[in-house]
Design goal:
It is built from five helices and five strands; from the N terminus they run βαβαβαβαβα. It is α/β, with parallel strands linked by helices. Strand 2, helix 2 and strand 3 form a beta-alpha-beta unit.
Length: about 170
């Protein structure tokens, strides 16, 4: 049986790191994506390899289309394809609605919602070649729960739910 390949975005810490580690324990070759900080991603890769898994880190800002396209090209070149996508990358800012900056609002939507669209769209050609392709888009409970001081996160999370549902219908 050929080893399967997964990409986990935002995998240098938190939930993404846990997902990457678990996938590697299931004999899956894991790409550990990070945006800015290479060292934590490399640490996750070292941990996976130390436990007998296969992993490599890869840099890409999920909110930048060219960056994501380069990431997919490298995955295709090195791994030959992609079987699983875990669209996990996200950022979190807090602030009152009246004082939240437009720049922070926009950045949160760009990474947490638009980034998931960009990564999924760029991954489709690779995923279509796999007989077991699967996509998981990570959102949060804020998709259905309005809370004060996290309006951008609530809106982005709700958007991820709808993105997932519409992509599932089309793909």
């Amino acid at each position: 049986m050929n080893k399967k390949t997964a990409l986990v975005t935002g995998a240098s810490s938190g939930i993404g790191a846990c997902i990457a580690t678990k996938l590697a324990q299931e004999n899956i070759n894991v790409w550990v994506n990070y945006s800015r900080k290479k060292e934590p991603a490399e640490e996750i890769v070292k941990q996976i390899i130390a436990q007998g898994g296969q992993a490599q880190s890869i840099q890409a800002d999920v909110s930048v289309e060219d960056s994501v396209k380069q990431m997919m090209a490298e995955i295709k070149t090195v791994s030959g394809g992609l079987d699983y996508l875990v669209n996990n990358a996200g950022i979190f800012f807090t602030g009152s609605f009246k004082e939240f900056s437009v720049a922070d609002w926009k950045k949160q939507l760009e990474v947490n919602l638009l980034g998931k669209f960009i990564v999924l769209q760029a991954a489709i050609p690779l995923l279509e070649q796999s007989p077991v392709a699967s996509v998981v888009n990570i959102s949060s409970r804020l998709s259905k729960l309005a809370l004060a001081n996290v309006s951008a996160s609530c809106c982005a999370s709700a958007g991820v739910v709808m993105l997932t549902q519409t992509a599932a219908l089309e793909l």
